[in-house]
Amino acid sequence: DRTVTQIAAGEVVERPASVVKELVENSLDAGADRLSVAVEAGGTEGIRVRDDGVGMDRAAVERAVEEHTTSKIDTIDDLEAGVGTLGFRGEALHTIGAVSRVTIRTKPRGGDTGTELRVEGGEVTAVGPAGCPEGTVVAVEDLFYNTPARRKFLKTTPTEFDHVNTVVTHYALANPDVAISLEHDDREVFATEGRGDLRSAVLSVYGREVAEAMRRVDGGNGEADGEGVSPDASPVESISGLVSHPETTRSTRDYLSTFVNGRYVTAGVLRKAVLDAYGGQLAPDRYPFAVLFVDLPADSVDVNVHPRKMEVRLNAEAAVTRAVTDAVREALLAEGL
Ligand code: ADP
Ligand code: MG
């Protein structure tokens, strides 16, 4: 029922950044080579994600906004007992549509007609043919207009934009082969070129000074050239990425980004493992930049402990963190740092 959907949506779609995350994931899933995100007032006034992915025909877009599965919750008590059990997969567009006004314009690759579909507060209010390029654009307006309690929890524009920026940055770094851009109130914040190399993505996102300070990390068990770190008893398949020279730092940990099996995760243990590699080389309360990809066998990691937090649980945590520290230390030592 609609009320339950709205409550569930409010729990999972917490703020504009959660909408952006779901839409960007959909665009990447659709095989986009180019993807642009534009938000207004931190996303509180509007969110638009455009891609050149496979697109949808009319039937597909009508299906996309439907509820895919029966909601697993019946009451608010169930919800509070643990929204972590709520399957959000197959539910993003539906739940976003339940708490906002959404316009989707989409055309399949190679197709000759586009479709525009509009959803307001969970109801499809219009659908019909529309002229549009191949790919998909989803525009979300009036987020939480029908859930005032949730709307009240939105923070200031700079704070909400900060969250959006963080999300888009992580996808841009994790997908250097896709040209990803972010615009806030009609101003370009960054745009990657999609050339495929991480350093050029870092340059677009963090700027030249940072990109030039980055050292290549290349470790783990799966090294074909045999030069990588091969920690015993570690399930790590590979560790790769870029970490900054110890003199190129910021006063926050926000620029330490860790990805497990290609997905951004907030993992304090991995951040700490990176910091440990710097030993005493960092000034007090200074943190390096790091974009680090750790690949593990699927059975040694439990991602998505919660659908909107990006926590991760690692088996053999000590061995994994040791491998990360070793790989980062090796990268710094290779430069004589
Ligand atoms: P999920 O991504 O988990 O399948 P969503 O509600 O996010 O659930 O999307 C529902 C469906 O709509 C997707 O499975 C996909 O088929 C289609 N879809 C959504 N966004 C796009 C897009 N940008 N391009 C093409 N298809 C899309
Ligand atoms: Mg999705």
Task: Summarize the topology.
Blueprint: H1 2-12, H2 16-29, E1 34-40, E2 46-51, H3 58-64, H4 76-81, H5 92-98, E3 101-107, E4 114-120, E5 123-130, E6 135-141, H6 148-152, H7 157-174, E7 179-184, E8 187-191, H8 198-206, H9 208-213, E9 214-219, E10 238-244, E11 249-250, E12 256-260, E13 263-265, H10 268-277, E14 287-288, E15 290-295, E16 301-303, E17 312-314, H11 317-333
The structure holds adenosine-5'-diphosphate and magnesium ion (MG).
Residues 22, 25-26, 92 line the site of magnesium ion.
Question: Could you describe the 3D structure shown?
Answer:
The protein has helices at residues 2-12, 16-29, 58-64, 76-81, 92-98, 148-152, 157-174, 198-206, 208-213, 268-277, 317-333; strands spanning 34-40, 46-51, 101-107, 114-120, 123-130, 135-141, 179-184, 187-191, 214-219, 238-244, 249-250, 256-260, 263-265, 287-288, 290-295, 301-303, 312-314. The chain is built from eleven helices and 17 strands. Mean pLDDT is 87; it is low at 69-87 and 222-229. The protein is an alpha+beta fold. The strands form four sheets. The chain has an eight-stranded mixed sheet, covered by helices on one side. Strands 9-10-15-12-13 form a five-stranded mixed sheet, with helices on both faces. A two-stranded antiparallel sheet has the order 11-14. The structure holds adenosine-5'-diphosphate (ADP) and magnesium ion.
